[in-house]
Amino acid sequence: MAQQNTVGASLEPTSHPLYDSSPTFRMARRQLDQCAQAIDLHPDVLRRMAIPKRALVVSVPVRRDDGRIETFAGFRVQHSLTSGPSKGGLRYHPMVDLGEVAALAMWMSWKCAIMNLPFSGAKGGVAVDAGSLSLGEKERLTRRFTEEVLSIIGPRMDVMAPDLGTDEQTMAWIMDTYSMKVGYACPEIVTGKPVEIGGIHGRREATGRGVVITAMAAFEELGIVPGQATAVVQGFGNVGSVTCQELVRRGVRVIAVGDKTGATGNSGGLDIAALSAHVARGLPLAGFPGGEEMDAKQLLTQECTLLVPAALERVIDADNAAGLRCRVLAEGANGPTTPAADAIIENSDIFVIPDVLCNAGGVTVSYFEWVQDLQQYFWSEKQVNEKLEELMLGAYHRVRALAKERKFTHRTAGLVLGVQKVAREMERRGLFP
Question: What domains, with CATH codes, occur in the chain?
Answer without folding.
Answer: 52-187 (3.40.50.10860)
